[in-house]
């Protein structure tokens, strides 16, 4: 039976469930579908789309070693995907379409429509668990619902991992060559600007690069992950998120690499390894939330009553935040990192999100959308989950009265100002104490030619104490309690 594997966000040949299944079932072709209008609707960042395209040559070469041709098709929106894939299946006499599952609401509807189109043509469809460790719906509460609290979800994951670890998929053998060549690969698509060379160099494409980063992190940094993950100036995080989001790396590969470094343990042993595995499970948790509570795919708050929050319409303040012009160095340095690299340190994502949603009282959806338009690792579940956590509108979110003060956060996690000075060189002449002091920042910004050397840097845009009080008042109007059960403190 002739097989077609449809690649989406699983741009690898190793540990790829659908690819292994297809090659074991019969002669296999592969396809990647360009959908630029859909990507624009989803606010996919130009650097993210560029990363997909840069990974295609690596994927094509790896598939070539398996004698699997990679074809390129165009469906401007996902509404066109059923017809485009049906035509390809008819042209190539395909008997079975195989793909790895994706979990957003639009992705699920697309796959259902494609499956229906295939059924009408007597073409079978096989979908596979690949993007996650556990199939959504397989981990439920005693009442049969999806978990809402991460600690309870994690406990259930641990129970399952003790029973059986998800195994890596064996690399398939090469098939007999087909009389069909791979298609030319696009280097760009309409509507998406080409990122800078420096950004591209920061994120080399290909499975070999992803594997090298994973192996390097597991060998050199994972043991110290707990102590260093909150320090933005140190290489304490894995920086694998872009490769996971594009599927150049699988969560199973990450889990197994962590287990090897921790002698097979996932809930005991080295604290750094345990902490990193828990971060993998946070990623898993938000994907399950996406399936169990699809309203988050519709830009709705997970906690419905928080839709009544009196968010401020403050376009000038929003623009200042987006441009890194808030007058708070840690926030502005974090935004500079995002704009230059397509990535932001996780601790800083929480700091800048809380500043926007609490200190500025601007709707979390504005921040979520802006991040998706910049992030090379943009992922609906993780981005939405992180923003709603910070805004206190999401599942298992931070209590509304807990705000990350950007000055105390910088004093704690960038005490010597190394991160700030790297991204904001105009502040390089300030002392460490001044970098973390609102009065010093305001005073120096007011004096052209002071310690800033005449550089253009704004004073702090809000009073942290007053803006915090404003946010607390807004949440109290909703009847929010002064405690929040089930929330990690």
What can you tell me about this protein's structure?
47% of the residues lie in helices and 6% in strands. The protein is mainly α and 489 residues long. It folds into three domains: 3-128, 3-Layer(aba) Sandwich (Rossmann fold), CATH 3.40.50.620; 132-167 and 204-292, Serine Threonine Protein Phosphatase 5, Tetratricopeptide repeat (Alpha Horseshoe), CATH 1.25.40; 304-476, DNA Cyclobutane Dipyrimidine Photolyase, subunit A, domain 3. Strands 3-2-1-4-5 form a five-stranded parallel sheet, with helices on both faces. α1 links the parallel β1 and β2. Mean pLDDT is 94; it is low at 448-454 and 484-489.
Number of strands: 5
Estimated helix fraction: 40-55%
Gyration radius (Cα, Å) is 24 Å
For the largest sheet, list the strands in their spatial order. 3-2-1-4-5
Count of helix runs:
22
User: How much strand?
Assistant: 5-15%
Our count of domains comes out at 3
The CATH C-level name of the largest domain is: Mainly Alpha
Q: Could you say what the CATH architecture of the largest domain is?
A: Orthogonal Bundle
What do the pLDDT scores average to?
A: 94
CATH superfamily of the largest domain: DNA Cyclobutane Dipyrimidine Photolyase, subunit A, domain 3
Question: Which structural class best describes the helix and strand composition?
Answer: mainly alpha
Spatial gap, N to C terminus: 55 Å
Give the arrangement of secondary structure elements.
Blueprint: E1 3-7, H1 17-25, E2 28-34, H2 36-41, H3 46-65, E3 70-74, H4 81-91, E4 96-100, H5 105-119, E5 124-128, H6 150-163, H7 197-202, H8 207-220, H9 225-228, H10 241-245, H11 251-261, H12 271-292, H13 315-322, H14 329-341, H15 346-359, H16 364-372, H17 380-391, H18 406-413, H19 418-423, H20 432-435, H21 438-445, H22 464-476
Helix pairs in contact: 4-5, 6-12, 8-11, 11-12, 12-17, 14-15, 15-17, 16-17
């Amino acid at each position: 039976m002739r097989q077609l594997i449809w690649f989406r966000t699983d741009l690898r040949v190793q540990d790829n469930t659908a690819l292994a299944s297809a090659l074991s079932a019969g002669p296999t072709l592969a396809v990647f579908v360009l959908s630029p209008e859909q990507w624009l609707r989803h606010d996919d960042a130009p650097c993210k789309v560029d990363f997909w395209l840069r990974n295609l040559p690596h994927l094509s070469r790896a598939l070539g070693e398996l004698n699997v041709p990679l074809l390129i098709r165009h469906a401007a929106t996902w509404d066109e995907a059923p017809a485009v894939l049906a035509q390809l299946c008819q042209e190539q006499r395909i008997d079975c379409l195989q793909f790895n599952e994706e979990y957003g609401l639009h992705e699920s509807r697309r796959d259902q429509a494609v499956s229906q189109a295939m059924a009408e043509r007597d073409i079978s469809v096989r979908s596979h668990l690949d993007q996650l460790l556990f199939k959504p719906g397989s981990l439920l509460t005693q009442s049969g619902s999806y978990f809402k609290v991460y600690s309870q979800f994690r406990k259930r994951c641990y129970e399952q991992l003790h029973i059986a670890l998800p195994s890596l998929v064996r690399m398939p053998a090469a098939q007999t060559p087909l009389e069909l060549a791979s298609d030319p690969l696009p280097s760009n698509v309409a509507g998406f600007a080409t990122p800078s060379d420096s950004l591209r160099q920061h994120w080399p494409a290909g499975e070999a690069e992803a594997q090298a980063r994973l192996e390097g992190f597991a060998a050199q940094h994972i043991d110290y992950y707990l102590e260093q993950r909150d320090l933005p100036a140190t290489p304490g995080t894995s920086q694998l998120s872009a490769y996971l989001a594009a599927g150049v790396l699988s969560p199973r590969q990450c889990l197994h690499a962590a287990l090897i470094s921790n002698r097979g343990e996932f809930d005991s042993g080295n604290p750094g390894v345990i902490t990193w595995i828990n971060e993998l499970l946070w990623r898993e948790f938000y994907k399950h939330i996406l399936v169990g509570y699809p309203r988050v795919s519709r830009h709705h708050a997970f906690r419905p009553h928080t839709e009544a929050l009196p968010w401020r319409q403050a376009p000038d303040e929003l623009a200042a935040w987006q441009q890194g012009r808030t007058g708070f160095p840690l926030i502005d340095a974090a935004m500079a990192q995002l704009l230059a690299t397509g990535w932001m340190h996780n601790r800083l994502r929480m700091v800048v999100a809380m500043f926007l949603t609490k200190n500025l009282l601007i709707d979390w959806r504005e921040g979520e959308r802006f991040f998706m338009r910049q992030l090379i690792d943009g992922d609906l579940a993780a981005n939405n989950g992180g923003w709603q956590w910070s805004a206190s509108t999401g599942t298992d979110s931070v209590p509304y009265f807990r705000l990350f003060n950007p000055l105390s956060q910088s004093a704690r996690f960038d005490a010597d100002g190394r991160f700030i000075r790297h991204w904001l060189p105009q502040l390089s002449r300030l002392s460490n104490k001044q970098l973390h002091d609102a009065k010093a920042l305001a005073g120096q910004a007011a004096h052209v030619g002071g310690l800033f050397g005449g550089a253009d840097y704004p004073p702090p845009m809000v009073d942290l104490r007053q803006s915090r009080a404003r946010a607390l008042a807004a949440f109290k109007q909703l009847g929010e309690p002064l405690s929040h059960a089930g929330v990690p403190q």
